[in-house]
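Hi P.,

Sorry for the delay on this. The queue was packed all week, but I finally got your sequence through. Input first:
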Amino acid sequence: MSTAACAIDFGTSNSSVALLGATAGGGAPPEGFRLVELEATHTAIPTAVFFSGEDGSRAFGRAAVQAHVEGHEGRLMRSIKSILGSDLIERSTEVGPGFMVKYLDVVVAFLRHLRQRATEAAGGPVERAVIGRPVFFVDDDRARDAQAERTLEAAARSAGFSEVAFQFEPIAAALDFERSVARETLVLVADIGGGTSDFSVVRVGPGQRGKVDRSADVLASHGVHVAGTDFDREVNLAAIMPMLGLGSEGRSESGASVHVPNAIYHALSTWHLINTVYLPNRLIELRQMASLYVDQNMHRRLMTVLEHRLGHSLAAMAEAAKIDVSMHGRAAIDLSMVEAGLAGDFDAVRQQAALAGSIERIVAAARLAIAQAGLSPANIDALYFTGGSTALAALSGAIAAVVPDAAQVDGDRFTSVASGLAVDAARRFGPG
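Then the structure:
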């Protein structure tokens, strides 16, 4: 028997899908849903699309990243969720020689791929979906935030869904946590992903599970548009970009000593802006900036990165360095792809300094969520972590310090939200 409903966690860095009810090849699982294997045995995949410049084909998830790493001609698009709410969404970008695509169509293509994988797992068309969304797509701008949700809904409908509903991602995580609690609990959900850090204070428990309307149990939700990809950018700017000239000595037109312009380095360190630095007019402009560099080696390294389109590879190195430092206290950075013998390192002290401002903003959001619920930190019974960026010890430790008496619970970093969205979808659409 096929099913017609699913839940989609469309994340900035990773995405997953849960399918309601019976599925192809078997009956309904005990939970009433199952996570879809989107790639081999993986139920979570990178939110990435690779457009081949060789044959026009598209690859998704790990296959997209691998195609880029292997050096295939084409364009890798990552962190595409970050485009929602920005003025990039209606713009086009070149993904192959003479082949342009709208950024919005990249979002549609990825959602269509997720729907296709759900349809294959269901054995029939999946036309209804609950899609997770951050508390804020855009900070401090309600109009743009609402427009971002409308854009995502339009993209989902273009991908083939006839009925679309939304749920806040941290509330979905609370619904996943609720499946395991034995008594009424006030939980602070910390959902720290690639693009946003979201918090909800929710009352959960056996007595609440059967309710369709949970609005009275959601005491507060708050978030900030700072998360994992921002950490990657800050590490990139602190550890890698200085080896390409960021902060190096430059010359003004009058000959005065200044620093070289830094806008290109910020764009090159920001996942969803990397492709914009490869535009022909931008490359011409940057080649002409050579005279501004006192150290010409720095400019040559920068142009090597741009002309060989190494920006995504450097961003991946920054992400890996962030993880290595978090786990081992130090990371080695090999930039031999840019220049033979070029290398650097990064350590915990420098990472802490680079990320301090972002972590402070995230912790402030957690405190504000508790205050908006009319509670004190002592009232929180449990702290539930989900999202890939909660693996960063400095961040999770800082959040835990806000509610020191709460029991700390680690959910599945990549699928808790999808599981909770499935619980929500079952209440909206039926069990499938």
